[in-house]
Please model this.
Amino acid sequence: MMDMKTMNMPEKKVDDNVLIEIQDVSKHFKVSEGILKAVNHVNLTIYKGETLGLVGESGCGKSTFGKVLMGIYPATSGKILYHGKKDIEITKKNLFAYSKMAQIIFQDPYSSLDPRMTVGSIIEEGMIIHKMYDKKRRQERVYELLELVGLNREHANRFPHEFSGGQRQRIGIARALAIEPEFIVCDEPISALDVSIQSQIINLLHDLQKKLNLTYLFIAHDLNIVKYISDRIAVMYLGNIVELATSDQLYEKTLHPYSKALLSAVPIPDPDKEASKKRDILGGDVPSPINPPKGCPFASRCPHATEICRQEKPKLEMKQGHLVACHHVKK
Ligand SMILES: Nc1ncnc2c1ncn2[C@@H]1O[C@H](COP(=O)(O)OP(=O)(O)OP(=O)(O)O)[C@@H](O)[C@H]1O
Ligand code: SF4
Ligand SMILES: [Mg+2]
Model:
């Protein structure tokens, strides 16, 4: 991971350090009850070599956002500009070229690997699609990739069901790396794994990032893990980014009431500290992303909400060195 403190963070003009610019991106789904606003006017810059953590409660739009960034879902509105090996806008037309530069690692290592394919052919598939190398070199690459993720070449002829969850996630990582991407969306890559295996996979992702100069969007529920792996962290609520800061800044001086509530829900390992800590239990109903309220999305659960919060949606703006969307956080 690069030292983001040297980069005049958190947001700045496009320069050589920028990999992805996300400009006012929304993703809405038409559902029988109306329009479901899964991702709502997100502006974000992702820098080369960083890990950007994305956290928020279940259903807040993290995976949808990850899929929009992968081009799996077209954005309903807004623009995504990619500045990697090629400079392109992520659109349907550019998807094939883009898919050579960006990959995704899914949460569930069971359903994300085709059970009828050997591990070798799962890893080789992307290289065939992108016409990379001849057959002999692809075979060697499969072996190299298996070793890179801590498996071995004999595993190439086996099938996914012969492997444990952690090993399957390693296969998913090898598959993602096969086409030599620059950017990887890690969508809760460890949450389906045993706790004992989780740190091995995190360490592997961390080592691979350094070795291969990768940029990650790392989606997670668990704030402890995000803190460890992320340079910066974006907090999402009901499809909106409500706070964005470097990992250290976010934990040292949390500004947004929702981020505070999320952080206080993280268990502290020391039992004495846990007992004495004031718990900020999230009260109130989670509003539906279908026809969401017009003011601050967090107003129905926020202990500091006032009339302006219910009337006007706060903008994400720089306050005290963080980007934060709250009427009542001082500049
Ligand atoms: N294809 C779809 N069609 C309709 N609604 C969808 C679709 N995909 C996601 N949604 C809705 O969009 C919202 C965001 O879902 P999403 O899966 O992105 O959340 P998430 O933050 O990844 O949650 P989790 O932490 O549980 O994975 C939810 O209300 C979900 O029901
Ligand atoms: S804008 Fe108001 S409701 Fe929203 S987080 Fe800030 S204080 Fe709470
Ligand atoms: Mg998800």
